[in-house]
Design goal:
single chain, mainly beta, about 5% helix, about 15% strand, disordered N terminus
Length: about 650
Amino acid sequence: MRRGLLLFMAAALSWACKVDPYCLDCRETPTKPPDAGTEADARPKPDVRTIDAQVFLDGCTSSGPETCDGIDNDCNGKIDDGQLPSVGESCGTDEGECARGTWECVDGKLACGGTAVLAKPEQCNNKDDDCDGVVDNGDPGGGVSCGTTDVGECKRGRTRCVEGKVECEGAIEPADEACDGKDNDCDNKFDEEDPLLNTACGVTAGLCSPGKWQCKGGKLQCTGATGPSFEVCDGLDNNCDGTPDEIYNFTTDVNRCGNCETQCKVRDGIPKCEDSKCKIAACNPGFHDKNKIYDDGCEYECNFQGSEICNGTDDDCDGDIDEDVVPPSICSTFGECAGTVAKCLGTGGWTCPYKDTVSKDTSGAIIPETTCDGKDNDCNDVVDDPFPTVGNPCSQGVGACTTKGKLICNAAKNGVVCNAATPPSGTAEICNGIDDDCNGTPDDKASDNWVPFTIKIGSSTVTRWIYAYEASRPDATDSSQGTMSHRACASKGKLPWTNVTYGEAAAACTAAGGSLCTEAEWERACTTSANPACTWSYASSCTTYSPNTCNGNDYDYDPATASVNEDGLLPTGTLASCYAKWSSTAKVFDMSGNVKEFTVARSQGINPLRGGSYDSPAGGMSCTLDFVVADGTFVFPSVGFRCCRDTAP
């Protein structure tokens, strides 16, 4: 009963859907067609209810989830709606020129869209357009006929894709026409325009003459030309290479020496050609070329004996007698004989041809020399034997005027003379250990630096003179005290004369025209005429001690040595303000310090020392200190002296 009811309902539904084409949803509540208002919409709808979830109006049967196929698979009245299989998933490829995209449902079909770049037909562009992993595969653009023509030597080819470009392969294009029996320019004519046609050809040098190029039988041929021939010795260029007779050796060929006609011949000898000239190569036995002339051949007949010897005979047949013989070592080689070589006399004897400066007798034998000429005339290795002083030093003049030279031979060559220059004129004498005025006595008229001062003797005031500087030796310098002792000098910038005894000091002053100063003279010169009198020998402020005005113990002799106050002897007049001032020009230096100075003895062996030295304290350098004395043998590095005199210098 139930089976029959179901069949009935199915038949009813099937009928109902056939009569209602807009029945899209045949469930219990039919869905209204989207375009209501039509005639079909006015028809009555059967009231059909779902008996089974799989049976709907208009025969729509669900086939499962919706897919992209243009069908309402899930019978919800919508086609290809919802989440469809594959849609949105990746599709395509990144191979070649392609790019991947995503699947889309378009008109009931899956389509690869989004950013996808799809394959295209392959083109000749060096790219993989069809995205199969191969560039320009299938020869795109190839296989097409190309080229100009198939006439003559020309031929059409076929296109081919080569490295991204369509090229024509196998085609032969027109070329310049040439004489080769071919239609090179593909104009249905051949050999008509070769560039060499009717141009000059052949050789133009020597005896050759040119012709013209003609095309015959597909080959260029030179017609009308005169070609080269075999070279013969005639002065002409037969083979047309630019050089006539070049195959012949005119340099050394005795048959063609220098040219084609000259043949070398030598009388009584053998010829040769050398540098294109005929010469004598050798002479026949017994004949010789004495004059070295080719034209008369071997003109000298001579019996050859071998090497030349001193015998008056032409042993080697060269036309010379006794030449180039080795001389014996029989000649002297000293002095003026040097270089003399024994000479053959031509009779088997030898002689020594000494030059004229050699002292010889009439037979040519060497004899002792008698002249003075600076030469070893008798060849005994001694120059000017009779005059042994030649070359010795000599001089003319005396003192500073002395000129020096050496003894030489005189003009007459019979004695010697000094070649020193004529002595110059002398100069004014100064105290320096030199004979400046050239009178034979050094320093005899030297004017020392004497300073006048006044002293009261009894009731009278008299003038005396004193050395401006401490006494120094004549040859003293600023770094050496010297060694001369013939007199004392008063010179600025010299080291004072120390290590001297009282007697030596007195004698030195006497030789200088003065004497040692008395204590009264010395003290007066030191204290000057100032009022009050000076206590120390200072240019100013001389009553107050100044540690650095004069060279005493307080003065630092070597300030470069840090933290040490050193004492030492200074050259005279070094300290500019250490002087007793009598006037602007009368100044007596270093009376305080530098060296202690001897004065006239108080009695035998009691010799006063005044003024102090470089190692004395302030009191020891005062002008009035007078208790230091020395005996007659006392010497010391800090003790010196100065001189005084009663009369004007």
